[in-house]
Automatic annotation (TrEMBL):
Domain of life: Bacteria
Native species: Clostridium frigoris
Pfam families: PTS_IIA (PF02255)
Lineage of source species: Bacteria, Bacillati, Bacillota, Clostridia, Eubacteriales
Modified residues (Phosphohistidine): 75
Protein name in the entry: PTS lactose/cellobiose transporter subunit IIA
Length: 109
């Protein structure tokens, strides 16, 4: 697999992870917890898929293959790290929303 394609897959999958996570947060704000949980599951699936891509690169390098590290590759790694952090924080915020929404008069839909 060409490194450019791998890098773009990392960026695209990381973006999809964040999109699913933020959509889940919006659903939780509305009290749609089942929808929010389903979207978080999709975000987790994207993270798993992206981790597999990253792991394949690490395995290649560990096997002695010389990988070209470019600014785009570093950018892709940054996207992955950021999407993981945001997804984890959003998961915690959704749990808070589940507790706070009833106090705000927002019923579970």
């Amino acid at each position: 697999m060409e490194i450019e394609k791998v890098v773009m897959d990392l960026i695209i999958n990381s973006g999809e992870t964040r999109s699913f996570a933020y959509e889940a947060l919006a659903k939780a704000k509305e009290g749609k917890y089942e929808d929010a949980d389903a979207l978080l599951e999709k975000a987790n699936e994207m993270i798993d898929k992206t981790h597999k891509i990253q792991t394949s690169l690490l395995q290649k390098e560990a096997a002695g293959e010389n990988l070209q590290v470019s600014l785009l590759f570093v950018h892709a790694q940054d996207h992955l790290m950021t999407s993981i952090s945001e997804k984890n924080l959003i998961s915690e915020i959704i749990e808070l929303r589940k507790a706070i929404n009833p106090l705000l008069g927002i019923k579970e839909n």
